[in-house]
């Protein structure tokens, strides 16, 4: 299996946009926190978060090629599914963009739903922090996040349904937000929030 160091090397090679790098790190810590909560394998859930958008700069952020080209990177790098990355991690990464007509993997496992909910919530929580007077994640409360979910004008490009799907993982939305805020606060210096 790929070590975390090898994953970081991959990110350094393929990801050049600072916010994208942070987004994957944020997704990683939320996934690890969720795995901890459910007694799942933390390295595996963390790995899913850490590399889920590996191809996004590679495709110049073109949504029609995003996640499709993930396979190409694996091929270039000689990374084998089932050997270097677990099959279920691969499935979660592909299905996090199941809306793409060429992606056949559908979200079905806990890991699949957790990844798509976590990477979507991470963006939403960053948006919540940025409107705080001090722009700190520690200033964001669960209640205010819940309220912002209902405000259609706030971070309107973020699909709330993907976040609500976390209930299929077996956790309430409130607890998911609480766990995620804590996970992001723990790396606040690193993410500059
Ligand atoms: Fe993402």
TrEMBL record:
Top-level division of the source organism's lineage: Bacteria
Identification of the protein by name: HDIG domain-containing protein
Organism: Candidatus Dojkabacteria bacterium
């Amino acid at each position: 299996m790929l070590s975390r160091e090898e994953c970081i090397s991959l990110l350094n090679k393929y990801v050049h946009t600072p916010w994208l790098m942070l987004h994957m790190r944020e997704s990683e810590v939320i996934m690890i926190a969720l795995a901890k909560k459910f007694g799942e394998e933390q390295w595996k859930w963390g790995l899913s978060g850490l590399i889920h958008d590996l191809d996004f700069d590679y495709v110049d952020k073109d949504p029609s090629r995003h996640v499709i080209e993930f396979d190409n990177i694996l091929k270039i790098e000689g990374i084998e599914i089932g050997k270097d990355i677990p099959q279920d991690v691969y499935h979660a990464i592909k299905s996090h963009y199941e809306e793409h007509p060429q992606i056949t993997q559908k979200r079905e496992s806990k890991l699949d739903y957790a990844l798509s909910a976590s990477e979507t919530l991470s963006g939403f929580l960053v948006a919540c922090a940025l409107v705080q007077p001090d722009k700190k994640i520690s200033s964001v409360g669960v209640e205010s996040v819940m309220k912002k979910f209902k405000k259609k004008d706030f971070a309107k490009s973020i699909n709330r349904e993907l976040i609500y799907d976390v209930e299929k993982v077996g956790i309430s939305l409130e607890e998911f937000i609480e766990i995620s805020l804590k996970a992001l606060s723990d790396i606040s210096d690193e993410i500059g929030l």
